[in-house]
Specification:
This protein is mostly beta strands and 259 residues long. Helix content is 3%, strand content 42%. The N and C termini lie far apart (95 Å).
């Protein structure tokens, strides 16, 4: 049984509506257990040990709350207008627990859930997504696997696109590669220039080079710096290409085309 509720006596001089309200606002209810069909608070309800960010719990009259740990049985929705985050036992009607994030502003939403065979991140109501299984990772769009990664290999079902080439200018016989496809220009726009060192790269990186313009020739020097080629190679027109692979400490030639 809860302890009895106790209020100190109301002074006779205060026995009016305003006095009663002020007196009630000054009182504290102390009980081991409080059972009520309806409880309203215009300011704050809190535990006796509440300290923001440290201990206890608090709920204010605006609906703001702070707790330590929370267990929610069923579903949890955090929303702001039409944008929301949903956490529940059945995400998107697929029958698996997970999270749905919806951004109505941009018309995008994504679901994250764990099925019986994989962890899935996909667009809501669609077939685009990332599927992680015990055997690998699949990147899928339009119900088609575009990239499949397993312990043995990475499989691409579409063209491999290296993106637009970016220009590098030789300085002291060297350039620094930052992606897999570059054009190379001579230092100070000289008519010719030698390239003997390519900085950057890790073992297994692929690099394709071409000259920046038809009127300036770039010569890659074999055995000089960190280039291991099948002899020197001149890039004198933009249709010439050389493909290299980085091995340990330098770039080794895979193929060349003199067009």
């Amino acid at each position: 049984m809860p302890e009895s509720l106790f209020f100190p006596p109301l002074p006779k001089s205060d026995f009016n509506t305003d006095g009663m309200n002020q007196w009630l606002q000054r009182q504290t209810i102390s009980a081991q257990k409080l059972i009520t069909g309806s409880l309203q608070a215009s300011q704050i309800i809190s535990s006796a040990n509440f300290v923001t960010g440290v201990s206890g719990w608090q709920i204010d009259g605006d609906g703001n709350a702070e707790f330590n740990d929370v267990t929610v049985r069923g579903e949890l929705t955090v929303s702001s207008g039409a944008n929301f985050v949903f956490i529940g036992p059945d995400v998107g009607g697929v029958g698996f627990p997970g999270i749905e994030v919806h951004n109505d502003t941009w018309g995008q939403s994504v679901e994250l859930y764990a099925s019986t065979t994989s962890f899935v991140m996909e667009s809501t109501g669609g077939s685009d997504g990332i599927f992680i299984t015990s055997t690998g990772i699949n990147l899928q769009t339009d119900n088609t696997v575009r990239i499949a990664v397993t312990d043995a290999r990475t499989t691409l079902t579409n063209l491999l696109n290296l993106g637009d080439q970016t220009e590098l200018t030789i300085s002291g016989g060297a350039i620094t590669a930052t992606k897999s496809y570059h054009t190379v220009d001579t230092e100070a726009d000289a008519a010719t220039d030698n390239l003997d060192t390519i900085n950057g790269g890790s073992t297994g990186d692929i690099l394709i080079l071409q000259t920046a313009v038809n009127t300036r020739d770039v010569t890659l020097k074999d055995g000089t710096g960190n280039l291991a080629l099948a002899g020197d190679f001149v890039l004198d027109v933009i249709t010439d290409k050389i493909m290299l692979i980085f091995v340990t400490t330098g770039w080794h030639e895979i193929a060349r085309s003199s067009n």
